[in-house]
Specification:
Elements (H helix, E strand, L loop, with lengths): L2 E7 L27 E6 L4 E4 L5 H6 L20 E3 L5 H4 L5 H16 L9 E5 L1 H10 L9 H4 L5 E5 L6 E3 L2 E9 L5 E7 L2 E4 L18 E5 L12 H11 L3 E5 L7 H4 L7 E3 L4 E5 L7
Parallel strand pairs: 3-4, 4-5, 5-6, 10-11, 11-12, 12-13
Antiparallel strand pairs: 1-2, 1-14, 2-3, 7-8, 8-9, 9-10
The chain binds zinc ion (2 copies).
One zinc ion (ZN) binds next to α2.
């Protein structure tokens, strides 16, 4: 049994390319980026999503971005064992409603297996910082079986699972350590160490306390918005400084802005650093070794 990560979206909050200004436009398909998110998939069928951005439907139907848009999407994600939420910003959470369809598919599969038409639906745990989860429950109560009577008749599609910073936990069989990061003036986000993978997006500063969780990282997925400094995201120079500090074996940039052209930036990448494209995938080890 092995795991892979798929970067199902590597674009910043507006998606790429942005329309309305030709300077932002690009005809290079590698610059067409959905809002940022990822899926972790195991060979035994488990799926853990990282974030549920506004493009989630498209990311679930076509995670590798190889689908022709017409034929049956054979690679589609039809199951979700858990979601790791980095934070509650719209570009990371406003596709949450699409999980209700996944929950419906999971319920159908479970009932087909058991033959019991009344078996309760499995709920999808949304895992993250307590305050982020509370805000999502307030914004989308019906997804959690709260609020209007019509919706509360059905089993809730989602349940929340608050994670404690700096404490290792197991999520869908994966060892996960959540930890706090600074999103600059936009508050806090949660970084995740998952086996030998680390997923750090929407950060401006990485607290010193995070270093011990990042020892021995094989693959680092890292926020890199653009060349110019930004109050809430890592720019190019800041991202390179984090790489020098963490020393991962391999790094891939995500959450890139429309100014970041694949053709230009891919020429200047240091060894061991790559730019994601939507559908980028790599294997990772599901074991935690902090040496
Ligand atoms: Zn974001
Ligand atoms: Zn954000």
């Amino acid at each position: 049994m092995s795991w892979e990560i798929i970067i199902t979206g590597c674009g910043t909050s507006h998606g790429n390319p942005a329309w309305g200004d030709l300077a932002w436009w690009s005809t290079d398909p590698r610059d067409a980026r959905r809002r940022s998110g990822a899926a972790l998939r195991s060979t035994d069928g488990r799926v853990v999503l990282i974030d549920t951005g506004p493009d989630l439907l498209h990311q679930l139907r076509d995670p590798y971005r190889q689908w022709d848009g017409v034929s049956y999407p054979a690679d589609a994600i039809t199951r979700c064992d858990a979601v790791l939420m980095t934070h509650d910003h719209a570009d990371h959470s406003h596709g949450i409603n699409d999980l209700r369809h996944v929950n419906r598919l999971m319920r159908r599969a479970q009932r087909a297996l058991s033959g019991d038409a009344h078996e309760p639906a499995p709920s999808i745990p949304l895992c993250g910082n307590h305050e982020h989860l509370e805000r999502l429950r307030a914004m989308f109560p019906y997804c959690f079986g709260l609020g209007e009577e019509f919706y509360s008749l059905a089993s809730p599609a989602l349940v929340t699972r608050s994670l404690v910073d700096d404490i290792e936990t197991t999520i869908a069989g994966l060892p996960v350590i959540p930890f706090a990061m600074s999103h600059g003036s936009a508050g806090r986000t949660t970084g995740f160490r998952i086996g030998d993978l680390a997923y750090l997006t929407d950060l401006k500063e990485l607290p010193a306390a995070a270093d011990r969780h990042l020892r021995g990282v094989g693959l680092l997925v890292l926020d890199m918005l653009r060349d110019e400094e930004h109050p809430t995201h890592l720019c190019w120079a800041e991202a390179l400084a984090i790489i020098a500090r963490v020393q991962p074996q391999r790094t891939v940039f995500t959450h890139m802005g429309p100014e970041v052209r694949f053709a230009d930036f891919s020429q200047r990448l240091p060894a061991g650093v790559e730019m994601a494209v939507d559908g980028w995938r790599a294997g990772f080890a599901a074991t935690l070794d902090l040496k």
